[in-house]
Design a protein that fits this description.
The protein is an all-alpha fold. The protein contains four helices and no strands. The protein has helices at 2-25, 29-34, 40-56, 59-67.
Length: 68
């Protein structure tokens, strides 16, 4: 599980940085690297980031347990 947690967290960080670039500079790094937003590799990456976000919801429970 720890490996999956680390992968999900890394994907969320990369996705978050990509959104920062989109918000500040209207520059989508993922789309640039993988051939546009409609390219299948870009779409797979976007889906993986979204799934990582859903998976990391469970981390809220871990944070709450550590605070006790």
């Amino acid at each position: 599980m720890k490996t999956l947690d680390n992968i999900a967290l890394a994907l969320l960080i990369v996705g978050g940085l990509n959104w920062l670039l989109v918000g500040l500079f209207k520059f989508d790094l993922v789309a640039m690297l993988f051939g546009g937003q409609a390219a299948i590799i870009s779409r797979i990456f976007y889906v993986l980031v979204g799934l990582s976000a859903l998976y990391c919801i469970k981390l809220f429970a871990n944070i709450n347990n550590m605070a006790r």
